[in-house]
Design a protein that fits this description.
Length: about 120
């Protein structure tokens, strides 16, 4: 099992900045990727940004150039620096971790989630 604890949400004005942090604990295996998802009011949960153990990162188009993900693999932490907020960024942000396992039959993944932290963009 993996426990993910987030911090850093809150109320922010349009154009403002926030930093989310997440730390993973309780696992005895390697975490292959960590990142952030969000779920806005009336919307489905969507990927915001993810960091893979090979160093690659991936962002949803709407946050490119505004949000930056960083990860410390040894400390099992991931952070999301969010700048230039837009009203559509209002959402509950969830820390995510994935473990990949392999066998002769292929690969399967197990996903873990934090409890979520609210980010509200409002003037």
């Amino acid at each position: 099992q993996v426990q993910l604890v987030e911090s850093g949400g809150g109320l922010v004005q349009p154009g403002g900045s926030l930093r989310l942090s997440c730390v993973a604990s309780g696992n005895s295996f390697k975490i292959d990727r960590m990142g952030w998802y969000r779920q806005g009011p009336g919307k489905q949960r969507e990927l915001v940004a993810t960091s893979v153990s090979d160093g690659s990162t991936n962002y949803t188009d709407s946050v490119k150039g505004r949000f930056t993900i960083s990860r410390d693999i040894d400390k099992q932490t991931v952070a999301l620096q969010m700048n230039d907020f837009k009203p559509n960024d209002t959402a509950v942000y969830y820390c995510h971790a994935r473990r990949d396992q392999y066998s002769e039959y292929g690969r399967w993944s197990t996903d873990y989630w934090g409890q979520g932290t609210q980010v509200t963009v409002s003037s």
